Amino acid sequence: MSLDAKELIAAIPIDIDEAQESSQQALEKLLGSLSQMPVPVSRLTRMWTLGSMQAKIAVAYFTYWLRSGFAASDEKERLLNETHLKAAFKLLGGMGYLRGAIMKVGQVIANYPNVAPQEFVDVLGRLQFDAPPMHFSLLREHIRNELGADPEELFDDFETTAFAAASLGQVHRARLKGSDKRVAVKIQYPNIGRTIRDDFKSLKAAAFPMRLTRDWDNTQAQFEDIRSMLDLETDYEKEAQNLCEARLLFAEDEGIIVPTVYSELSTKRVLTMEYLDGAHLDAFLASDPPQALRDEFGRKIVRSTFRLGYRGEMMYADPHPGNYYFMRDGRLGLIDFGCCRRFTDEELAYVDACELAFYTSREAVREVMVHVTDLASASEDREEQLQLAAEWADWAWEPLLHDGPFDFGDPDYFARGVKHYSGLVKKRYTRSKPINTWLTRSVYGIRAMLARLSARINFCEIYRAEARVKPPTH
Question: Which of 96, 226, 353, 388 is the most buried (most CB within 10 A)?
Answer without folding.
Answer: 96
